[in-house]
Specification:
108 residues; mainly beta; four-stranded mixed beta sheet
Length: 108
């Protein structure tokens, strides 16, 4: 299942073992990037690091180029979990995130 920013706030049902991909626009050259703030644990986990793909698929990214960060989560066991991703600069933890992405997940 693949989701984007427009899906924020949704309730999602997953089957045990199913992979959930969340792709969000990002521009790490500004210092901002997406981070998991809440959600991984006994119900879902993040089996691999996030991926970054530039908008024009140039690798390595051109300075200043934005793109898409993709997170993949795996449903581990039956239960309910909230997932919250935040878009902020890592050194600005005392300020509110620029953007937030949230889901309520139910694994059946």
């Amino acid at each position: 299942m693949a989701l984007g920013l427009r899906d924020s706030g949704r309730h999602i049902e997953l089957r045990k073992g199913q992979i959930l991909a969340v792709s969000l626009e990002s521009n790490p050259s500004t210092g901002y990037s997406w981070h998991v703030a809440e959600g991984t644990g006994s119900v879902i986990d993040q089996p691999e690091d996030k991926d970054f793909t530039t908008a024009d698929n140039v690798n390595p990214p051109r300075p200043g180029a934005g793109g898409i960060e993709t997170f993949r989560f795996r449903a581990l066991s039956k239960g309910r979990s909230s997932l919250r991703l935040i878009y902020q600069r890592p050194w600005e933890k005392k300020w509110e995130p620029l953007k937030t992405f949230t889901l309520t997940l139910e694994v059946r």
